[in-house]
Design brief:
With 368 residues, the protein is of the alpha+beta class. Helices cover 23% and strands 35% of the residues. It contains 8 helices and 20 strands. The chain has helices at residues 47-55, 97-107, 112-125, 141-153, 171-188, 199-205, 223-228, 233-238, and strands at residues 9-18, 21-31, 36-40, 62-67, 70-71, 82-86, 159-163, 191-196, 208-213, 216-221, 243-253, 256-261, 266-270, 280-285, 291-293, 302-313, 317-324, 329-335, 351-356, 362-365. The longest helix is centred in the middle third of the chain and has 18 residues, at 171-188. The two termini are 49 Å apart.
Length: 368
């Protein structure tokens, strides 16, 4: 029976300081072979530094970095089996597209016949086989990005590192390239480690992802798991949009707990860890999981009346802001299914009822 394959990337206790600033603090992560793995977080959270540590552009102050089971901490970038694609593609303007893609192979003294074959394959892979003789300046931003990908993939690295490579593209092209990148990664079977601050991008493309904040990984897992079951308020707030209710557990009944908020709302939730009576908690509810109606729904446990104070058309959805009878605002998002979009009953200033099921109330520890 063959031995199980080691992880393509493994970090253990990796720490990086710049003076008194700890950019990366005791980071542990494992990226399996062939995964699309994203490092997600706001600016300054340590995600790019982590990528640079894997690439070898920075050296850790502590911890281990393994590529395909090999400790590479002491190795320079050119001796690590990785390639990096940056937001600014750094294509050589004095070379043709094909010459740009061939650059790394020529540095390795690969034969001319092999260079020609592999460059052709790489350009075909990114659907640019017809532009090999052009100058990079003759290409669009999306095409230049694909050339940078071809240049990185032609070396057949174990791991491809991508540092916000779509950040310079406009929104429509960025969304198109997200799908192209994911399909390309699945075709070539190479492990991708992808840095982004765009939550939707990470959710769309990743097999697994890590949410970083202040140099640490707060939560790691599959995108759906992190979105549906965030473990902290920061993760719930950074990944998507949430309504938060700060309060205290006042009762427990079978698999449910009752939380009384600072505004005196009583919210039924599914019980979890640390939800005994007297515990301080924050309840998070996603806007798309809240119902809005002109009359109170029958048999709903969590239901309140309020007035619509804002309505914003977002194309696919309409976002409503409802001020509850207790004074707290709740954001609700409803899909625009009908021909004219928003529900005509949900008019600005109208009295409505909002409700949600206990099992979509996420109970998070503390008030932070």
């Amino acid at each position: 029976m063959p031995a199980p394959r080691v992880n393509d990337v493994e970090l253990g206790g990796v720490t990086k300081r710049y003076g008194a600033v700890r950019a990366v603090e005791k980071v542990d992560l494992r990226v399996g072979h062939g995964q699309f793995y994203s490092l997600l977080g706001p600016s300054g959270c340590g995600k790019t530094t982590t990528l640079r540590l894997i690439a070898g552009f920075e050296r850790p102050d502590a911890g281990r970095i393994l590529i395909a089971g090999r400790d590479v901490v002491s190795l320079p970038p050119y001796r690590r089996d990785v390639n990096t694609v940056f937001q600014h593609y750094a294509l050589f303007p004095h070379m043709t597209v094909a010459e740009n893609v061939a650059f790394g192979l020529r540095e390795k003294r690969v034969s001319l016949a092999e260079v020609t074959r592999r460059v052709g394959e790489a350009l075909d892979m990114v659907r640019l086989g017809h532009v090999g003789g052009r100058s990079p300046r003759e290409l669009s931003g999306g095409q230049q990005q694909r050339v940078a990908l071809a240049r990185a993939l032609v070396n057949r690295p174990t791991v491809l590192l991508l540092d916000e490579p779509l950040g310079a593209l406009d929104l429509k092209l960025r969304k198109e390239m997200q799908l192209e990148l994911k399909v390309l990664q699945q075709q070539v079977g190479i492990t991708f480690v992808y840095v982004t601050h765009d939550q939707e991008e990470a959710l769309t493309m990743s097999d697994r992802m890590a949410v970083m904040h202040e140099g640490r990984i707060l939560q790691e897992g599959e995108p759906r798991e992190i979105y549906e079951h965030p473990r902290t308020r920061f993760v719930a707030d950074f990944i998507g949009l949430s309504n938060f209710f700060v309060g205290e557990v006042v009762a427990q009944e079978n698999d449910r707990v009752l939380v009384r908020t600072a505004e005196s709302l009583k919210v039924w939730c599914v019980s979890g860890e640390e939800t005994t009576p007297g515990t301080s908690v924050t309840v998070a509810v996603r806007p798309e999981k809240i119902e809005i109606a002109a009359s109170p729904p029958p048999s709903a446990l969590n239901v309140w009346s309020g007035r619509v104070v804002a309505g914003t058309f977002l194309g696919e959805q309409t976002e409503y802001r409802v001020r509850l009878e207790h004074g707290q605002d709740v954001v609700i998002r409803r899909q625009n299914i009908g021909l004219n979009g928003a529900n005509p009953q949900v008019a600005l200033g109208s009295l409505v009822y909002v409700s949600w099921a206990p099992d979509v109330s996420l109970v998070l520890p503390g008030h932070a």
